[in-house]
Each structure stands twice: as structure tokens, then as C-alpha cells.
Design goal:
Layout: H1 2-12, H2 16-56, E1 58-60, E2 71-79, E3 82-90, E4 111-114, H3 116-124, E5 135-139, E6 151-156, H4 159-162, E7 169-174, H5 186-212, H6 216-228, H7 233-269, H8 285-306, H9 308-312, H10 329-346, H11 360-377, H12 379-390, H13 396-407, H14 410-440, E8 446-452, H15 458-465, E9 472-477, E10 490-491, E11 494-496, H16 499-505, E12 508-510, E13 518-521, E14 530-531, E15 533-539, E16 542-548, E17 554-558, E18 569-571, E19 580-582, E20 585-592, H17 595-608, E21 615-617, H18 621-659, H19 661-669, H20 674-711, H21 722-740, H22 751-755
Parallel strand pairs: 3-6, 4-5, 10-14, 11-18, 13-17
Antiparallel strand pairs: 1-7, 2-3, 2-7, 4-6, 8-20, 8-21, 9-11, 9-20, 12-17, 13-18, 15-16, 15-19
Length: about 750
């Protein structure tokens, strides 16, 4: 305790410079704690969203709905990259459940309750009202919504409106306890946490270490003096730790306050693809404990470790002492991590690339972590080796700059590590986005919509085929399912279309004849054995059947973008009985795949058949929402990493310049020009940073490749992201140059040399 109080007395009595250093450490710690709290709270925000989604999830009775019970029908359509959810409710007379969260009562027929975001969207897009048959009577409270930006509606309906839909179920209660569509898939959330930790927490650890070691040289000399005066080694370490602990504790309190203010602002303004209620972002007890206790504990160990040399060997802090050569173990970590990621990357060149099962799920993240950690810890060794090589140059600027880096190579790690880690982490963030894009986004130029015929009337079918944005439509007839069928042959399905319709669905057609049933054949695909089938038809109130035999005459096609063309039989519409429609089948619509056309077609489908189950083939609406959230969180992590890395660079570069004022003054007195001194200061920082950024680009792309290979996608080598990373590295270098040039002033103060 005496040493702790002594450290505080030295802090208060060491002049303005020491107090300025203390407040700089405090503000730096507050920034770090704010970023740490934000990273730790992101999973809690996602859990709160998923919790409310689970509380409103309908629990239904098993089997077919019985008369008198409340019926529920859920529909989800893509609205851009956001899902548009509609829940149709037909209130029953028995076993009636209570209202869902966010409503006071179940909606009556033709009553509609919408989320606030949907109410605003209806004002901007009146066409959406066609999807909500009824009158808007109110809004849903926050307890029934995952976030303020959600498009959600409860639509009251009559039993006759929902009885024909196959997805209609009898409602038992609300709250299944789990979210049907989590904001981020659990497996992806683990990857996201790892990437966010790499983006933010690794630069944050460097930043807190930099803040705890400000004015390290002068403080080490002060601690060495205390040690020579008789203070014990452990006591000397405690004296140094006192200042860092108090600064970290005060910074943690300020950081929590900064996060609270930031949460209030961001929750109200929102981020692209991600919005939450302020209460969702309230730090948990674990987050508060980690910030208020973990950061001071980290500062205690950093403070003791930074004073170990002065405490154990005080004479090593004198100016004439020879510095110790950097150790090689940081480079060993880098080589070990690179060995793992390169090994997994090379499997992508083989016929059987590695996957993420078994021990691979542990080794790939371990390799990435070892690579990132080794990249930082090898910077002193790389700076030392480069300095020894370039110090032999005949250039005065390079000679002065590299001699200083040779004497003090560890300063390079403190100055450039945050920015190097940022570029390394950016590759990992790109890898996550590339993998998610493969899952959720279709590259087909055609967009297909499948609508089951069981939920459509003949009039609705006719109106749907007349939607102006469509470029093609067809009908697929399905044979009834027969669980007792034997043999390898598959009952034939039939595509009801003319030759003109077939040509609009595929790129090349050969041998098509109108008015005849033909065998559809793709020369690039091996045909499966197909048996004749019987299709059931509805003709008014009567039911008939139609025999579908597999014809011998073939029509060749290739290059189709619509999956329904994989039926074995092309059946002409003219051969269907007048007024007959298949009892089981799918109405297939096709349009262009640009977002505006897709949105227009979905709106028109909803206006014609509001309760129809529309399958927009290839559009994973939940995946689109998920990747939007992931992109936002990764962008947030990149911004925080950039802020932390830039702050670490500016703080350490400024502290480094202040520590060397006496040396710069001495050089100025013997005739060195300010321009030369600025170039020396710039070269001391920019050259190690350039080497670090080059290594970060190479190792980052290798780490990204190992992740993509084991992720199981089709893309292993993300060449498209290289120009962006090179541009980011160039911007970082330019910022470093601009940040170091003003650190050498014009004023020469000989007092610095005398006092030194």
C-alpha cells in the first residue's frame, strides 16, 4: 500500500508533463473501454432481438385445424434486403389464445396492426397496402418487434379466407422460446465474434499497452533512481503500476459513460441494416465487471511488466547502456501461424479441400490468431534487421533514422502495430462477407417465383400471368404423391407451356412443335428413368384425371435459368380440358432479377393473392437480412479498429517524438536542418510500417483463403478484394506520413540538453 501511495504522490508532484501523461492515459483507456463495451454488447443486442422473436412465435396444434379454433397463417416476402412478415389471424370460438406480444387483443376480421416502420413504409409505397387486406387500426408495441426497423403486420381474417391455404394451422399459444430466423445464425455468430475480436480487441490490447507505457524512458529512469535509493524490486514495480491502475480505473468509468451516450445516439439513429432499442444495448453485469475490473487488472500487469527492467537492473536504463537484441520468439509465432494457414490454403488446390469439421474448426482460428500475434511481436526483430541493413546507406537521412531504430527497435511495435493489425483483420472481414454472399445471393439473370396452385383460384391464376413485368410464365403439373410406389422410375411431371413460352424460359430450343407432347431433354444432363403418371384436374365442381405418358419425340434445350424446366414432359396447353386446372402443381413466373423488378412483381403478386405462399427461388430473404447485419457489424468493427489503430499510432508517435526532443535538439545544434529532421522522423516510422503493411496484406490474404477453403464455399481466392486492401494500406501509409511530419518543431531549446 505504501508503494501505491508513493506512486500517486510522484504522479501529483512530477510537474505538468506527468499530469498531462496521466490524463492522456486516462482518455486513451476510456476510448478503449468504450470500444470494448460496444463489442461485448453486440451479442446481447442480437440475443434481445431473437428473444422477442421467440416470444411471438406461434405455437400450433398438431394435425389439421379443427372447426372453432383460431387459425394462423404466416407469410414472409423480401422487401429489398429486409423480410416483410405478415401474420394472418382468424379468431376462433374455442381454445382462443391471448393476443401476441405488442397487441392488446387479437385483430378482428379486416383489422390490420402494423409496426411503426411499416406504417412509414406504407406512406412511401402505397402499393404495399394490397398485401394487407383490411384497414390499419393501430401499431405494434416494441415488445412484439425485434427492432424499430422491422416490417411486421398482424392481419385479421375470416376462417373462410385462410381455410384453403395448406400452411394454415390452429393456434395454441404464443412463444415457442426460440427465434425461427435468428438475426445471425449461431455458427456465423461464432465466426463474427472471432472476426470482431480480431478487428477490435487485438488493436485495443495494443492501444491500452501503448497508453500504459507513455514516457517509458523517463519513467524507467525515475524508477531506477528509486531502486538505487533502496526500494525493493517488487515495490518499484508497484510504484509504476499505481499510476497505470488509477488511469485505467478512471478511464474505465469514463468509457462506460461514453458508451452509454453512444448507445443512446446509435439506437435512435440506427446503422445500415441494424437498429435496436436503447434497452437492448444496456451493458450486462459481466460486461461492466470486465470493463471496470479487467482493464485495471490488465493495466496493473502492464505497469509491473514495463518496470521490471528498471527494478531488476537499474543500471540498464542509463543512456550509455547497450540495448538488448530483439528476441526471435515473435518470429517463431508468425512462422507457426503461417504454416497452419498456408497448409489449409494449399488444400484448396487439391480435389478434396479441407472442411471445417473436427480439429480443423480449432486449427484454422488458432492459425489466424498465431499469425496476427506473431505479426505484431515480430515487428521489433524485423525493424532491427531492416535498420542494420539500411544504416549502412550513404544517405544522411536513412543513416540517422535507421541508427535510432537499431538502438530502439521495440518502439516500432508500439507505433505501427495497431495499423498493421487493422489491415490484417480487414482481409478476414472480407472473407466472412464473401462466404455469406455465396449463400444468400443468386447470380442468375432471371428471377423465378413459384406459387402453389392449391392456394389460387382460376381467376387469380389468370391475373397473375398478366403481370406486365413478367417475361415468361408456365404451369407445372405434379402427380399425386404415392408412398407405395415401387421401382426406380419417377412419376412424370409436366411443364404446361407453348414453344414460345419455352423459348422465353431457356436460351436455346431445338425441335419444338406446338400442339404435341414432347420429351424435354438437356444434352448436358443424364436423363433419369421416368414412368407415366396420372394428373388430377379440377374442372369446376368436378374432378377428372389426365394420363401423362412419356413421349418418344424429343425437344432439345440448353442454358435454362428457371428450375421448373427440369420436368421431363412438355405438355401443350391446348390439350388440357376446357376450364380444367391441376389439383396439385405450381404456377411458375419469371422476370428479370434486378431488385426493382423483383420488388414490383412481388407487390403485384401480393395484391392479386395476398395469402398465397410465394417462393422467390434463389432469394434467401433471411440470409439477405443476415448478411446486412453482418456487413454492418463488420463495418462497425472496422471503424472502431481504425479509430483505435489511429489513436494508438498518434499517441505513440507523439510520445516517441517528445521522448526524443533532446536528441533532435542536439542534432539541430550541430547543424541538421529541420527538413532533414522531419524526414528522419518520418522514415523511422514509415519504413517499419510499410514492411508491416506488406506482411499484413500477404498474411491476411492467406488467412482469408484458409477460412474460405474450410468454409465449404465455391470461392477460395478472393482476388476482387486485393485492390481495396492495397488502397487501404496506401491510405494508412499516407496518414502515417502526415502524422509524423509536424512532430519536429522549429524551436531549439538548449535547456532540454542541459536538463537531460
Amino acid at each position: 500500500m505504501r508503494e501505491f501511495l508513493l506512486g500517486l504522490r510522484l504522479l501529483l508532484g512530477s510537474g505538468r508533463g506527468a499530469r498531462a501523461r496521466f490524463w492522456l492515459m486516462t482518455l486513451g483507456s476510456s476510448l478503449g473501454v468504450c470500444c470494448l463495451a460496444l463489442v461485448l454488447t453486440v451479442p446481447a443486442i442480437l440475443d434481445a432481438r431473437d428473444g422477442r422473436a421467440g416470444d411471438r412465435d406461434p405455437v400450433v396444434f398438431s394435425g389439421k385445424p379443427t372447426s372453432g379454433r383460431t387459425l394462423v397463417l404466416e407469410r414472409t416476402d423480401p422487401h429489398g434486403s429486409r423480410p416483410f412478415n405478415r401474420v394472418f389471424l382468424a379468431r376462433g370460438t374455442r381454445d382462443t389464445p391471448g393476443p401476441p406480444p405488442g397487441l392488446d387483443a387479437l385483430p378482428a376480421p379486416h383489422q390490420v396492426f402494423v409496426s411503426p416502420a411499416l406504417r412509414e413504409q406504407l406512406r412511401r409505397e402505397p402499393g404495399l397496402k394490397n398485401l394487407l387486406p383490411g384497414t390499419v387500426r393501430g401499431t405494434i408495441a416494441p415488445a412484439g418487434l425485434t427492432d424499430p426497423n422491422e416490417l411486421y403486420a398482424y392481419v385479421g381474417a375470416a376462417e373462410s379466407d385462410l381455410g384453403h391455404a395448406s400452411a394454415t394451422r390452429a393456434l395454441k399459444s404464443w412463444g415457442s422460446g426460440y427465434a425461427p430466423n435468428p438475426a445471425v445464425d449461431p455458427s456465423t455468430l461464432d465466426i463474427l465474434r472471432f472476426t470482431m475480436a480480431t478487428l477490435v480487441l487485438l488493436p485495443l490490447a495494443v492501444y491500452l499497452s501503448v497508453c500504459a507505457r507513455l514516457s517509458a524512458a523517463s519513467r524507467n529512469r525515475r524508477l531506477a533512481a528509486l531502486r538505487l535509493l533502496g526500494l525493493s524490486a517488487k515495490g518499484t514495480q508497484r510504484v509504476n503500476a499505481a499510476e497505470t491502475v488509477v488511469a485505467a480505473l478512471l478511464g474505465a468509468v469514463l468509457g462506460i459513460g461514453e458508451y452509454w451516450l453512444l448507445n443512446q445516439i446509435m439506437a435512435r439513429t440506427g446503422l445500415p441494416g441494424l437498429k435496436w432499442y436503447p434497452g437492448d444495448g444496456t451493458p450486462t453485469a459481466g460486461t461492466l465487471a470486465l470493463c471496470l475490473i479487467g482493464c485495471p487488472v490488465l493495466a496493473w500487469f502492464v505497469g509491473r511488466a514495463s518496470a521490471r527492467a528498471a527494478a531488476t537492473n537499474p543500471l540498464s536504463t542509463r543512456r550509455t547502456a547497450m540495448p538488448r537484441t530483439p528476441r526471435i520468439w515473435g518470429g517463431l509465432l508468425l512462422v507457426t501461424g503461417l504454416g497452419i494457414v498456408v497448409g489449409y490454403s494449399l488444400t484448396g488446390l487439391t480435389a478434396h479441400p479441407a472442411d471445417s469439421s473436427g480439429i480443423n474448426a480449432l486449427l484454422v482460428p488458432l492459425g489466424v490468431l498465431l499469425t496476427g500475434l506473431g505479426l505484431v511481436l515480430s515487428m521489433p526483430l524485423l525493424s532491427y534487421l531492416m535498420a542494420r541493413r539500411l544504416a549502412r546507406s550513404k544517405s544522411l537521412t536513412l543513416n540517422l533514422a535507421m541508427r535510432r531504430n537499431e538502438v530502439e527497435p521495440g518502439s516500432a511495435m508500439r507505433v505501427v502495430s495497431g495499423l498493421v493489425l487493422l489491415v490484417f483483420s480487414a482481409s478476414l472481414a472480407q472473407g466472412v462477407l464473401v462466404e455469406e454472399s455465396q449463400i444468400t445471393r443468386s447470380s442468375s439473370p432471371s428471377q423465378e417465383y413459384g406459387i402453389p396452385l392449391a392456394g389460387l383460384t382460376p381467376h387469380q391464376q389468370h391475373r397473375l400471368t398478366g403481370i406486365p413485368e413478367l417475361r415468361a410464365h408456365a404451369l407445372v403439373m405434379e402427380p399425386p404423391f404415392n408412398p407405395n410406389a415401387e421401382g426406380p422410375r419417377i412419376p412424370a411431371r409436366a411443364l404446361v407451356a407453348t414453344c414460345g413460352q419455352l423459348k422465353s424460359l431457356v436460351r436455346h430450343v431445338e425441335g419444338c412443335v406446338d400442339g404435341k407432347a414432347l420429351r424435354l431433354t438437356d444434352p448436358a444432363v443424364t436423363p433419369e428413368p421416368v414412368a407415366s403418371s396420372t394428373i388430377r384436374l379440377r374442372q369446376g365442381d368436378r374432378h377428372t384425371s389426365l394420363k401423362i405418358t412419356v413421349p418418344r419425340q424429343r425437344v432439345l434445350f440448353s442454358g435454362y435459368d428457371v428450375t421448373s424446366v427440369d420436368t421431363p414432359v412438355l405438355y401443350p396447353p391446348s390439350k388440357l380440358p376446357s376450364g380444367a386446372v391441376p389439383a396439385a402443381g405450381t404456377l411458375v413466373l419469371a422476370s428479370a432479377s434486378d431488385p426493382a423488378t423483383v420488388r414490383a412483381v412481388l407487390d403485384r403478386i401480393g395484391a392479386i393473392a395476398p395469402t398465397a405462399d410465394v417462393d422467390p427461388v434463389g432469394i434467401n430473404v433471411d440470409g439477405l437480412q443476415q448478411i446486412s447485419v453482418i456487413e454492418t457489424l463488420l463495418a462497425l468493427g472496422m471503424v472502431m479498429g481504425l479509430v483505435v489503430g489511429a489513436a494508438a499510432f498518434l499517441v505513440s508517435a507523439t510520445d516517441r517524438a517528445v521522448e526524443r526532443r533532446s536528441q533532435v535538439t542536439a542534432l539541430a545544434l550541430i547543424g541538421a536542418r529541420p527538413r532533414v529532421l522531419r524526414l528522419v522522423q518520418c522514415a523511422q516510422v514509415v519504413l517499419p510500417l510499410a514492411v508491416g503493411l506488406l506482411l499484413a496484406l500477404i498474411t491476411g490474404k492467406l488467412a482469408e483463403t484458409s477460412y474460405l477453403v474450410t468454409g465449404g464455399g465455391e470461392i477460395f481466392w478472393d482476388d476482387a478484394g486485393i485492390p481495396l486492401l492495397v488502397a487501404a494500406a496506401g491510405t494508412v501509409l499516407l496518414a502515417a506520413v502526415l502524422g509524423t511530419l509536424p512532430l519536429v518543431g522549429r524551436r531549439i531549446d538548449p535547456e532540454m540538453i542541459r536538463r537531460d
